[in-house]
Design brief:
Largest sheet: 8 strands, antiparallel
Helix content: 25-40%
Structural class: alpha+beta
Low-confidence stretches: 1-21
Mean pLDDT: 86
Number of domains: 1
Order of helices and strands: HEEHEHHEEEEEHH
Number of strands: 8
Number of helices: 6
CATH class: Alpha Beta
CATH topology: Protein Transport Mog1p, Chain A
Amino acid sequence: MFLALGGASAVAGYEMAPPRTGEWHEIAWPFPRDGWPAGRAFRCAPADCGAVLEVYVRPKLGFCNCSTGVADDDEVDRVADVDMISAQFRPLKAGDVVDVADMQGRIRAYDIEMPGGKRTAIGIAVSHRCDLLVAAAQGRGDAARMRSEVLAFLGARAITKWMMAAMNGD
């Protein structure tokens, strides 16, 4: 009787639990080598993020204006690695100030041209002392939802911990 009651409770608990969202999985860094070390890349499936969404994150140590940080949208366009996803990108609108892992910078959304058609991209550049952390994301879907998913992912404790360690050269 205890076994049956325990099993029924477990099934009810599983079915009543809120759905898990944002299941991200690490993937291989998809870009060719350049002047910066490869970063980390992650993918979220449509069932979890509404569409396939990929995020690419890496530090660029010593690559930031020490006094102003990330000052404007032109800088996000130049440094956020969106051009590695596609050389054909167009900003959707002016960017916004953003805070990622206690680092301030800017975030901006783009339309990008890909072999399979248009996609949406998000570019993020934040600074810590004289160092830069950049993130670029791409997928098919609404820019506002993508932005929300990406910022939630970057705000997760494990990713924040890695970003801060990478910014400190660890």
